[in-house]
Each structure stands twice: as C-alpha cells, then as structure tokens.
Amino acid sequence: MVGLDEALQGWLRDVQRITDLTPTEQSKITQAGAKVFQERLEEATRNKHYDTKRYNPKRGHLADGLETQMSNADGRKTGVSTVGWSDGMNATIARWLNDGTKKMAGSHFVTEIQQSKKVLEEVLAAEKAEYEKLIRKRR
Fold it and tell me: Is 36 in contact with 123 (CB distance < 8 Å)?
C-alpha cells in the first residue's frame, strides 16, 4: 500500500511534468490566443476605419496590416505572442485613430477590443484548447 508521502510525491511529479512548459510551448499557447485577438481587431478596424478613399497602395488598409509574432515586441522569445501592425506608419496611424489627436477625437477601437470580456473569453478558450493539445501529446 502506498503511503501518503509517496502518493503526494508522485502527484507533485505529475503536476510538474504537466506544468513545466518551455518558452516554445508557451509561445504556441499564446499564439493561439493572439490569432483570435488579431481576428477581432481586424474586424473592429474594418468596421470603423476601412476607408477606400484613403487607401494607400504601398501600405494597404490598416486591417490588412495586422500580424502576430511568437515573441515580445522586442523580438525576444519569452513565451509570449504579440499582435500589431507590420508597418510602422500604419501603427502610428492606428494609434492616432484610437487615441485621437488635438484635432480629432479618438475612436478607441483598439482599446475596446483589449478591454472586451467577450474577446478575452475567446482568447482564453483558444489558449486552453492549445494547452490541452500540448498536454495530451506529453502523456
């Protein structure tokens, strides 16, 4: 019969095996959530700021320039994923449209997506699904 101490040690080993994720595995999980966030941000951008009169053939529309990367904003692989505009000028324009300037009020389309509980739930559900997929591979 297994003693309580041995059973707890075995349980602890199982939990550590499951929860010790490498930065690459963490990136896969956060990338799943980042893709959902990117989709919701593209939708919001298209709904609020898809102006065909101001189309720039070089940069395209704001909604078309969103990307995800499996690293932080500085490019370091720490297990996080980042969503943003690939073109620096599009990122600046998006910031102006979101925050406003002294000549125009901001629409807060990015802020609304960041603070949306519905989007948060969708992101977490995607991350949970990816996490469970990784855990199933380990067993």
Answer: yes
